[in-house]
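User: quick one, fold this
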Amino acid sequence: MRFKLLLPILPLLAGCATVPQANKPSAPPPPARSPITQVVPPTQPNAPPVVGFRAPQVLRAPGLEAVIERDSDALTRQFGNPRLDVREGDMRKLQFSGEACVLDVFLYPLREGSEPVATWIEARRASDGQDVDRAACVAALRR
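Assistant:
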């Protein structure tokens, strides 16, 4: 009786059985390759490092004549005490500010060993940092 109950299940169990297949020869793995390293020469040789003094770029623009090439004492007389006075190497940055704008004045020596003077100016609004006309900012901050 038990055998009769198992008889309908046998075809289902037979479907689960797997038939071993003959081992097919697999393709041999590709030969191991050593990594290829290729050195590409530069198109131009690297420039030698700059040694010694380099003359700064000087901003020449209308309305800045009273500031460019002035030393820190002359700038303080024009704008009052700076809000910031930052020194790094032979460079100096003075920052002057007012309601109208913030003026960053960068001072560099024009010749080796000379006193730094104003060579570059950046101006922006104090409220949002947007660039403003440099000459207008100089005029607005002048005492």
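User: anything notable?
Assistant: The longest strand covers residues 117-124.
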